[in-house]
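Supplementary Methods, section 5.1.

A reviewer requested that the exact input to the structure prediction be made available. We therefore reproduce it here, unchanged from the version used in the analyses.
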Amino acid sequence: MKKILALALLTATTYVQADWLSDESDSSWRMPKSSFDYQSGNSYTTSYLGDTAYVSGFNYNTGSVWNTTIESDGDMRGLDSNLNPWSYNASSGTYINYGTGKFCTGSGYSRICSE
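The structure derived from this sequence is encoded token-by-token as follows.
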């Protein structure tokens, strides 16, 4: 029981440190930012660790949740609103949703998708 409590406390402490504490001498930690889009009903929270952004969202109209990790090179990965894992490779322009099988490549008008 003590081990479980210690693990829970360590996890909670790490979460608080990562999300809310900021050491002025360490620029890799930044305060999370939240915003709300009234038109879509989406609420967003963005946290940063170094050059990586972590975005989590909640839609008040549908009750769905989703998240995205954005790397400094533009690569992204996350879970869509149906909790399907997906990834995007910025250098190739390739998007894959592993839950739905959707695959897209290219950009703009030349973007091609298949499901």
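The chain has two domains: 1-71, 73-115. These observations are discussed further in the main text.
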